[in-house]
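ESCALATION

Customer reports they have been waiting on this structure for their group meeting. Please prioritize. Original submission:
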Amino acid sequence: MKIGTHFDDYEFACNCERHEVDENGHNVLDHIIDKRLVDLLDAIRERLGVPLTVTSGYRCEEHNKEVGGVSNSQHVLGTAADITYDDVDVEYLAEVAEACGQELGIEGGIGTYYHQGFVHVDVRGYAARWNDLD
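Update from on-call: job pushed to the front of the queue and completed.
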């Protein structure tokens, strides 16, 4: 089911094996994803002009612990996504996320993971910035 212009609900489902699977083999989303997050990702997708891949959307608490997520992870709240695209330029992706958030009036976190090739975006309500180089 579409939950944005460019995204289906299963793209945000927890990646662990504890969850129900649909007829297409996708994990079923069993949590509400914040509409501001979907709006932000749609804006980023539009700006880039290429499909985004959500590598991690919602995480159940057990899966969040398994992957080393912090106890107050925005992923557990349905307010965060880790995103990438083919031949990703993480610096550029983070810049686009920043610009789109500002245009939409959405404050949140942007984590730039150069070594893993993705950017974390969230809609926590205040600015937070980090990277894996520090």
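Sent to customer with the following note: Residues 9-131 form a domain with the Muramoyl-pentapeptide Carboxypeptidase; domain 2 fold (CATH 3.30.1380.10).
Escalation resolved.
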